[in-house]
Predict the structure.
Amino acid sequence: MKNYTSIQNIDNINTWIEEAKELKSNPLKYNELGKNKTLGLLFFNSSLRTRLSTQKAALNLGMNPIVMNVSGDAWGIEFADGTAMNGKTAEHIKEAAAVVSQYCDIIAVRAFPTLTDKEKDESEEVLRSFTKYASVPIVNMESATGHPLQGLTDAITISEHAKISKPKVVLSWAPHIKALPHAVGNSFVQAMQKMDVNFVIANPEGYDLNPQITGDTPIYHDQEEAFKDADFVYTKNWSSYSQYGKILNINADWMITKEKLGNAKFMHCLPVRRNVVVEDAVLDSDSSLVIKQANNRTYAAQLVLKKILENYV
Ligand SMILES: NCCC[C@H](NC(=O)CCC(=O)O)C(=O)O
Ligand SMILES: NC(=O)OP(=O)(O)O
């Protein structure tokens, strides 16, 4: 594998899950593999888990991670081709990516969508430009339309906690005060579509995700019906896709409660707003997997970096 930009880069999710579990049981087994190799982490947006777990993963493989907050700390980067750069941007991605490639053996990038320009977001301008102009492998740390390190993490976590062979997994929309990206939802859908699970999505009318991603996956607009006999409820807010980037209404009654959850396990990528997305009683109970889930971020990232290092030319 050269780049890891999408869940579609996973050739066999069951094999990957087993490999990640092996790394988790012996995280330092390959601590010579990345010796004298540098991982550059570039953040255009905030992060706690991705920032730390990806560095931890690199350290477990013997790599040297270096981190930069691009927004604020670096020069504004221009992505448009052929433009006269007489505005806010000071250097072009052609130079920036080529220069960073001389300092780093792998580059990992976080860049959220605009949520105002659908075409631009769907073109994955930032991630695609790094892939095009960098001369080293690229890892997606959450882009405009996907968060494949999170999706792999979620697949590992479900495999670890499943009590039956084909568990029912529900991806449920939940309320939020801000317009949020579709990336986490998209990658979770793509990961579940590759796994042997009974997978459905629950969201209010107007919040269906990109139909090219959801495909044949059943979508319920009735949360209670979707949650029937669920083993896992994975919760996430996203803004409208059809009325791109908009909050249509708050739908506060879609908040996850202990009563709605029943015997299902609760999952969320974090950060999560308590008593808006999910009530305290869920997060503070044994039903919540969120902390264990976040721990798996390290092993998902470690597996991805290991696969890239093993194929490094
Ligand atoms: N990386 C995990 C989620 C990141 C982002 N959440 C957020 O922006 C939450 C911000 C807030 O709650 O203010 C998202 O939904 O894609
Ligand atoms: N889940 C996740 O990606 O968290 P951060 O945004 O804190 O990295």
